[in-house]
Amino acid sequence: xxxxxxxxxxxxxxxxxxxxxxxxxxxxxxxxxxxxxxxxxxxxxxxxxxxxxxxxxxxxxxxxxxxxxxxxxxxxxxxxxxxxxxxxxxxxxxxxxxxxxxxxxxxxxxxxxxxxxxxxxxxxxxxxxxxxxxxxxxxxxxxxxxxxxxxxxxxxxxxxxxxxxxxxxxxxxxx
Length: 175
Ligand SMILES: [Zn+2]
Hints:
The protein has 175 residues and is mainly alpha-helical.
């Protein structure tokens, strides 16, 4: 749009349906190519809600307020639909509606499995690092070298944890 305002002649019609101006609102919510995907995923009500938003920031705010599973599904849909749009733009074959819906459900399931928000029980069971006792000196090292320059030292990183021994006389304080 900004380029067009500068006098450069561009075809700004939707690359999927070739009918209307391709802005985000059209491409993601109104295009005849994307509507069956929202319907097939049974989230048509959310499409209608997002279509009423006033600009991209409002769309993002609405998506972020959705329940976690729905939010992940919408993100998967928008991401995959943008890929489909680009395939069309490069004359590559697109997924069928059924293939697309399968991809979104699979992506959503995978993302949910790996990015579930931490529950209270999982956070309390995570072991935490603690300082070793006073009589222990702990030295961590890490290093690497290139196979072909085995004799050359590439880098080494070391960390030292040395407990501080303190003796406090009665009547004095540690500063
Ligand atoms: Zn379109």
